[in-house]
Amino acid sequence: IPGYGDSPPVEMVVTAHGRRTFLDHVLQELGMQRPVLVSPSMSGRFALPFLLAQGDRLAGFVPIAPVGTKDYTAEQYRGVQTPTLILYGDHDTRLAPQALQNLQHLPEHRVAVLPGAGHACYLDKPEEFHRALLGFLRQLK
User: Fold this and answer.
1) Which of 39, 43, 92, 109 is labelled catalytic?
2) What's the superkingdom here (predicted)?
3) Which of 10, 32, 82, 124 gets the most CB atoms within 10 Å of its CB?
4) pTM, full prediction
């Protein structure tokens, strides 16, 4: 993610609009048509503005305890029709409950909780993570 960790800061990603535009450019450059957007942790700052503005361009959305969910209202979430799998580890007691509280307003959502997994549930329980993800992908149109 530009500007996080050791990556250089990018002026464009300072605002939610800029991050949405950045993600839009990435998807266009990759030639992706109706992708499923998987959004763990810090990537929520990019994925959520994109979902709320252009969710109809996504075949599905898989938030994994993303940051930034409290920046939007229940009403904004209710306007999104993108099929969503809210996925998290039950040992993530800080970010996951907050994300669930906000994301549960997405009308087309379901929830998968990985027992014994923490914030990076895909690393803690990779088989269970992939089983949940693949099950969700199989149900998409």
Assistant:
1) 92
2) Eukaryota
3) 82
4) 0.89
